[in-house]
Write a structure and sequence with these properties.
This protein is α/β, with parallel strands linked by helices and about 350 residues long. It has helices at about 15-25, 35-45, 65-70, 85-95, 110-125, 135-150, 170-180, 225, 260, 290-305, 320, 325-335, and strands at about 5-10, 30-35, 55, 75-80, 100-105, 130, 155-165, 185-190, 190-195, 200-205, 215-220, 235-240, 265-275, 280-285, 315, 340-345. The longest helix has 18 residues, at about 110-125. The protein is globular, with a radius of gyration of 19 Å.
């Protein structure tokens, strides 16, 4: 049986390198893709995996090059943000070629656009496309699915991220700058997705001990408002990010720090689901949010390539594509985080 070929777009970035290393550790074959041919060759030499690693230079505006990549690969993991700029051409090329697709997007407008523009094409070509399988957004979506499993008629879900020591890459800095300045937010209230200006506010979220209550930015412009309602029956969704996420003095000036220093983050992702007469909650607690996101995307891509993914094609939310709790438990066994669920609290 021929082994699947995994393409990584943006392979020489921090996340791309983590994804490449994890795939090689699993014995997979890689096609490293990006706009800089020399950087790709340098990374291939560093990985030192012989003929298990190939390279292909293609920029996001190189339609021919992207088509060649999608035709050669079985699954593509897109790691090169900001996805507001890079997302559409790569996702479109994958859908048209029938290449399975996973990305590391946070941007809600990009995720919504993949659903809106690629769904019919992916279903026709047989591609499975799961945007946002990463730390922000993806883990929140999956955790919401695990917390809400088997529960009908949820009034409100809160997804809260507490992060300390986050140091942004160039792509992450550009994404954060864009999102924090964005005026047209995607929110989910009264059972409907809405777009428009929302006044930012400070809130307090009661994280379980030992973390405790934390001051939060709300609404946090992540994409769970787009994806969670696809697999969870909920009326309102609120997204929050701790103000501590940006407290590191070099958070926005850390493009060139080493991988070990970048990995020095602590995080908790918490979900509360509330309904009349009851509630449920869960949390993920761990270190190195970059590695957690990379492991999530690799797990998704490998499952799809091996036929252990969703039974239907098209564009799917992370918690729609995979059974949420088993997926998170697999990541827990890989050391991504510790998962705690508390269901049915009265």
């Amino acid at each position: 049986m021929t082994k699947p070929l995994f393409a990584i777009y943006g392979a020489y970035g921090h996340t791309g390198r983590l994804v490449a290393s994890e795939l090689l550790a699993r014995g997979e074959e890689l096609l490293l893709v990006g706009r800089d041919a020399e950087a790709l060759r340098t990374l291939a030499d560093e990985l030192d995996a012989g003929d298990r690693v190939r390279t292909h230079a293609a920029s996001v505006d190189d339609a021919v090059g992207l088509r060649e990549v999608m035709t050669a690969a079985d699954v593509l993991i897109h790691c090169a943000g900001p996805f507001a700029l890079t997302g559409a051409p790569v996702a479109t090329a994958a859908a048209e070629a029938g290449c399975h697709y996973v990305d590391h997007a946070l941007e809600p407008h990009h995720v919504k656009a993949v659903f809106d523009t690629a769904q019919a094409t992916a279903q026709r070509t047989g591609a499975v496309m799961v945007p946002g399988v990463s730390f922000y957004g993806g883990l929140g979506d999956l955790l919401a699915g695990a917390v809400a499993d088997g529960i009908a008629g949820i009034d409100r879900i809160v997804v809260a991220y507490a992060v300390n020591g986050w140091r942004l890459t160039s792509g992450a800095k550009n994404t954060a700058t864009h999102l924090l300045a964005e005026t047209q937010r995607l929110t989910f209230s009264d059972g409907a997705l809405r777009e428009g200006y929302v006044e930012p506010r400070n809130a307090v979220f009661p994280f379980p001990p030992p973390l405790g209550p934390r001051t939060m930015i709300a609404p946090f412009p992540s994409f769970e408002t787009v994806t969670v309602p696809r697999h969870v029956p909920v009326r309102d969704i609120d997204l929050m990010l701790s103000t501590s996420a940006f407290e590191a003095t070099d958070a926005f000036a850390s493009e060139h720090i080493g991988a070990a220093e970048r990995a020095d983050t602590d995080f908790t992702v918490a979900v509360q689901a509330m309904w009349e007469g009851g509630g449920a909650a869960g949390q993920l607690t761990g270190h190195d949010l970059w590695r957690a996101g990379a492991l999530a995307s690799v797990e998704a891509a490998v499952r799809i390539a091996e036929g252990r993914g969703p039974t239907k094609t098209g564009v799917l939310a992370p918690g729609e594509a995979f059974p949420a709790e088993p997926f998170l438990r697999d990541l827990e066994r890989q050391g991504a985080f510790t998962l705690t669920l508390r269901r049915g609290e009265e």
